[in-house]
Amino acid sequence: MTELARIxxxxxxxxxxxxGLVSAMESHPLRGDPAxxxxxxxxxxxxxxxxxxxxxxxxxxxxxCPVTEMLDDAMDHVIENGSDAVWSAGDEEDD
Length: 95
Description:
By secondary structure, the protein is mainly alpha-helical. It is 39% helix and 8% strand.
């Protein structure tokens, strides 16, 4: 499986190949029954990719965008699974 996220220097970098959008669309619920012709398909990959990027970066009226929400979910998952890299209230204090 392709590694989509990695640490590069001082940044977490997420890369999604454009072909990954095509694969994601093929398994997306809007695709419908795989045995039937698709209910939707990408007809202009570069334009669709730009629209997806715009959506990922759209803060709308709040302080969150899909990327920050994904980051929040990932951090919650790591903390809830007992990360040793995070101190939380209730943890024993180090002496």
